[in-house]
Structures are given as C-alpha cells and as structure tokens.
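To illustrate the input format used throughout this study, we show a single complete record. The first block contains the structure-token representation of the backbone; no residue identities are included at this stage. The design step must infer an amino acid for every position from geometry alone.
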C-alpha cells in the first residue's frame, strides 16, 4: 500500500510510484494474520495510516485468495 499525500494507493503504476511519499508492504496469512511488514520511501506514516493500510491488505488478501481458489 502506497501513500501519496493524504491518499493510499494499491498497485500504483510506475509513474504514480515516483510521486509516492512512502510504502508499506504487508504480507498476510489469512483474514486476521499479518506475518510481515516492510516500510519503504522517505515519508513518514502515522499509526492511523498504518492501521488503515493493514486493514486494506487484510481485505484484499481475502479477495485475492478467493479468486485464486476459484481459478
């Protein structure tokens, strides 16, 4: 999940990535388990932003696992 100003982006284009302030890569095991975090970029992240980023990752993890299991 990338931060650009006050916006959070998922899967930005290369051009969008260049303008992002920070990135938080989040790995999940299931709907409730975060197993890894990696912060990138020079910008700071607040605790509320990190919380929101983790919730986005958990929600999208569920969606992606569902799509993979249906394939």
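Output of the design step:
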């Amino acid at each position: 999940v990338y931060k650009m100003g006050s916006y959070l982006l998922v899967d930005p284009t290369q051009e969008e990535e260049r303008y992002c302030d920070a990135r938080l890569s989040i790995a999940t095991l299931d709907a409730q388990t975060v197993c890894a975090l990696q912060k990138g970029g020079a910008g700071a992240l607040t605790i509320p932003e990190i919380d929101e980023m983790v919730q986005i990752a958990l929600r999208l993890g569920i969606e992606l696992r569902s799509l993979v299991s249906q394939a």
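Structural context for interpreting the output: The chain has a mean pLDDT of 95. The beta strands are 2-4, 7-9, 22-28, 34-40.
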